[in-house]
Structure formats: C-alpha cells, structure tokens
Amino acid sequence: MPCCRRGQYRKDGEACSGSLHFFLDLYGFDTVNFIDTHTHLYLPEFKDDRDEVVTSALENGILKMLLPNVDGKTINSMHALSDKYPEHCLPMIGLHPTSVDMEYPKEILKIRELLGKRKYWGIGETGIDLYWDKTFATQQEEAFREHINLAKEFTLPLIIHARNSFSELFRIMDRENDETLKGIFHAFTGDLVQARQIIDYGFKLGIGGILTFKNSELDTVVREIDLQHLVLETDAPYLSPVPMRGKRNEPSYLVNTANKLAEIHQVSLETIAKITSLNAATLFNIIL
Ligand SMILES: [Zn+2]
C-alpha cells in the first residue's frame, strides 16, 4: 500500500524508512519509480476516467507508461493520450496480430509513414496469436517479419505478443534476430526453456498480473530467472493482478505484480523498482 505522497511503497505498509531514502539517494531517484512497459490506456475502457487513471498511476510512482498500438483504429486515441502527457505516456507503433488480415500490407505502409513523422518508443505490438483464430496465420507471420525489419531499420525495441505460438515465433527469430534487435516478449507465460531462449535472443521477459494468479506456474519459472532479464507491465485494461483479478486493470496496479516479484526473489520492493526500471529505461532509451 502507498505509504507516502509520491508513490513510495513498502510491502508491510509501514512508513517510508531511512533505507528507502538511502536507496533513492544512491541511485539518484527522488522516489520509487516504476515503468509500465505495456498499457493500452487509450482504449475505450478508460473513456470516462482516463485522467484519473493517469493521475493515480503517477501518484503510485508509475512515471512512464509505454503504449503499444493495436491497429489503424487506435492510432488517433493513442496519439491524443501521448500528446496530453508527453513525459509519461510514450507511444509505440505496430499492428496487433489479432488485427492482421489480408489488408495488413496497407497498415504496414501507414506505420512506416508515421515512423517518419513523429517519435515512437518501440515497434509493436506485433507477434503471432494462434489462440483465437488461425485464419490469417501466414499473414501474421509475414506481418511479424515486417515489424522485425522496421525495428531494425528505426533501431527501436520490438514488442512481441505470443499466444500458442512460441515455436512459430522462435523459428522466425532464429533466422531474423541479430545483435541490433532488442525488445520484449510481453505478458510472458512460457516455461523455463522458452524463457532461456528469449534471453538468448537478448530480449526481456515482460511480467504482468499473471504472476499473481494462484493457478499460474509462472512464479516457478520467474524464480529461476535473473532480474536483469525482466521488465514489468500491466497490459491494462486486461490481466489485472490479484486482488483485482477479473476487474479492469490499470497502471497503478503494477505495484501488486512488483510486490509478488519481490516476494519470489526475496528482495525489497525498492530493488524490484530499481532493477526493472533500469532494464526498461535502458531498452527504451528513457531518461529516468
Ligand atoms: Zn497488449
């Protein structure tokens, strides 16, 4: 729970301690800051209270929120949000795999055009989703390759969505990955072998609310992974962590996932904030 005004947290709910402030001094942060590396805060689910949700995120120390795009229909609302909060809401550009159809080349052209016009912090989200619908599986693979090329060309991190598709994604990554390509496998829920494969590619694992689910085995995988490979995310409005599971997710709930990660790795919440924020800041070239 928050224990003071600017989002400083302790697991036990006690007042901020000297050690917290020692940490802040040491690393030059003036509070415990988190980065939500994946939030769709521009979607209609937030149309009635978007400003309050942003304010709550900032009050809880979530100072940077990366916005992955969905498709051509979400670009304007994403731009509007990032124009309103340019220091905090950082847009990315891409076509979500569940929005890929025969028309995807037009969307890629539009993305390429936009990349020449304004600042984006990453390419995504892209990837392959064979859970809902396999109709456009081939096109999803082609679109994923196009996103890889854009990430390389514009030297931006790649945000990958994987659902029932690790073997397809890995097959493409084995061929296309190089030392210039960086990014995140977001909402990671794979096993240890898959986690190690992603780390071998030089990518980060995006850890969200699923980590807090009782029936998830993600904690046993994440326990084995060094914190340097992890970044935090909400995927708001989806995948709320416990105790908000099933409700609309929002960036301020990131702290619940961070607390769980602290418990799993038996370190302080401050350490989780420091390491995951530095991982994300380095990846996205964000100045903290
Ligand atoms: Zn997403």
SSE arrangement:
Blueprint: E1 2-4, E2 8-9, H1 18-27, E3 34-36, H2 50-59, E4 62-67, H3 75-84, E5 89-91, H4 104-115, E6 123-129, H5 137-153, E7 158-163, H6 166-176, E8 183-186, H7 192-200, E9 204-207, H8 218-222, E10 230-232, H9 254-265, H10 269-284
Parallel strand pairs: 3-4, 4-5, 6-7, 7-8, 8-9, 9-10
Antiparallel strand pairs: 1-2
Helix pairs in contact: 4-5, 9-10
This protein binds zinc ion.
Structure, briefly:
The chain is α/β, with parallel strands linked by helices.
General description of the model:
It is globular and about 45 Å long. It has 10 helices and 10 strands. It has 288 residues and is of the alpha/beta class. 46% of the residues are buried. Helix 4 (104-115) runs parallel beside helix 5 and helix 9 packs across helix 10. The model is unreliable at 1-30 (pLDDT under 50). It has one domain (33-284): TIM Barrel (Alpha-Beta Barrel). The longest helix is centred in the middle third of the chain and has 17 residues, at 137-153. The chain binds zinc ion (ZN). The site of zinc ion has 5 residues, from loops.
